[in-house]
Amino acid sequence: MKILELTVLAVLSHISFSGIRVGLSLAAIDAGATPFVIGALLSVYALVPTLLSLVGGRWIDRIGVRRPLFVGTGLMVLGGVVAYAHYDLWTFFVTSTLVGSGFLLSQLVVQKMTGDMGQTADQRRLLFGMLAIGYSISGVLGPFSSGVLYDTIGGDRTFLSLGGLALLVMAWLFLRRHSLPGPAAEMPVQRRFSDLLKTPELRRLYLAVGLISSAWDVHQFVVPIYGRSIGLSGTQVGMVLAAFGLATLIVRLVLPLLRSLTEWRAIFCAQLVGAVVYAFYPIFEKYEVLMGLSFALGLGLGISQPMVLSLMHRVTPPGRIGEAAGLRLMIVNGTQTILPTVFGLLGSAFGVGLLFWAVGGMLGVGVVGQLRSGAGYNES
Fold first, then answer.
1. CA-CA distance, 19 to 148, in Å (whole number)?
2. What whole-number distance in Å separates Cα of residue 259 and Cα of residue 283?
3. Beta strands in 192-308 (DSSP E)
4. Residue 327 in 3-state DSSP?
5. Which domain holds residue 120?
6. Residues 278-291: what's their mean pLDDT?
7. pLDDT tens sequence across 237-263
8. Which of 54, 75, 192, 223 is most buried, judging by how many CB atoms fall within 10 Å of its CB?
9. In a domain, 290, yes or no
10. How far apart, in whole angstroms, are the C-alpha atoms of residue 340 and residue 177?
11. Is 379 a domain residue?
12. What DSSP assignment string belongs to 304-347?
């Protein structure tokens, strides 16, 4: 299987994943759920992935990619069907668990297959860049299609349609099952992933990953709540979120032209832009302005992911890339699990505006910390 075909399958899976996530937010809001309940719902989306990131990766190493890939897409299909068959707030928690767990397995497989296609560091950077562009496209199409479908055919059929998209991926994989690689000839030696934290630059990187991931995921959680509170339709909410995805696509397309931009400087820019945008978000209620802010945030945060992967490969001790990637996913999924519930509770108590400013403050602390450490400013 070539990178183009793999990227197309990853895009379709991500459209299903991100679309169902936005649909769950809209359906829960219309069902009268509080911000705390909505936050808990989205936390469940990443709870099991947080616990299973490393276990899932080792399972894939042991038995190969075929079965985990089919299990992952199958769980996503099941999640969409469950939400359609039992359209209820509490059933949405089951859907959230199924879809989140399924996408985790799919994502781990796609990342492993992408990395295995490259023979050198430059080849892997190019391959991961192509995959990131694909995810940017699905980041636009997922929220947009979910909002439009929700307004036109209703929430239950939206979940069925997006689950059907995962079923299409599953059928495609079945037809191409013989092109999927088997397990590795030799099992890697298992070490404690906590040893990675003894590398100072990796510690700073994982802290930045946590902050940027928080800014990324809270945006997906807070915008539907804020948009509904100021009277935006489901389509308009989807368009605001789609503007974010469009910006990540654009910045990743032009990234090869920014050769003088080092990894740490890109991470610094991502945190700085995020802090500024989050500070201004709750001040405005005009739909067009919110789209502009979402687009600006996408430009800032979108530049960080390829640079984070590049930096991680550069500073990780030899033979530990897989573990480092697993720990990164654990941090990302951990923020998706904890922050929606915490910020949902704060939003219920103090209002949505505080959520924007809290995330902006966290990113501001990251900016100050990076300035003090000098990370990125001694690079040639």
1. 10
2. 36
3. none
4. helix
5. 3-182+195-371
6. 87
7. 888 888 888 888 888 888 777 767 777
8. 223
9. yes
10. 37
11. no
12. HHHHHHHHHHHHSPTT-HHHHHHHHHHHHHHHHHHHHHHHHHHH
pTM assigned to the model: 0.72
Amino acid at 357: W
CATH number for 353? 1.20.1250.20
Q: Could you please report the per-residue DSSP string of 231-260?
A: T--HHHHHHHHHHHHHHHHHHHHHGGG-TT
Nearest CA to 275 out of 348, 346, 369 is that of 369
Most confidently predicted of 68-77, 322-331, 336-345: 68-77
Burial zone of 353 (CB within 10 Å; 0-12 exposed, 13-18 middle, 19+ buried): middle
Structure tokens at 344: 């949902």
3-class DSSP state for residue 137? helix
Rounded distance, CA 275 to CA 361, Å? 7
Contact between residue 39 and residue 221 where contact means Cβ atoms under 8 Å apart? yes
Q: What is the pLDDT of residues 164-202, one digit of tens each?
A: 999 999 898 888 877 777 665 554 555 666 666 777 788
Q: How many domains does the chain have?
A: 1
Side chain identity at residue 190, one-letter code: Q
